[in-house]
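Lab notebook page, bench 4
Experiment: in silico fold of construct C2
Operator: M.H.
Input chain length: 92 residues
Purpose: comparison with the prior construct
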Amino acid sequence: MSVIDVHRAHSLDKDHARQAAETLAEDLSKQFDVNYQWEGDHLRFKRSGVKGHLNITDTDLHIHLELGMLLRPFKVRIEQEIHSQLDQILSA
């Protein structure tokens, strides 16, 4: 199992942090065919070969993904895309 674990500090209020997380989830869903579902301030990701979550706190977005064997070769690309999306979303 290959793991992607990203913490990103933010200074957004809860509603804007949730919007940022939703934007990230939508983009990842489109690019990597990942399903996601909100459970309070906790967002779960799932598809064959991937599972994970995104947690929102008052100061931090935490993304944790576990990639199965078939998606390990894409770990760097997926992680770069997460950082890129967060850069765009949190600087807006």
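Observations: The two ends are 34 Å apart (CA to CA). The beta strands are 2-9, 35-39, 42-47, 50-56, 60-67.
Next step: discuss at group meeting.
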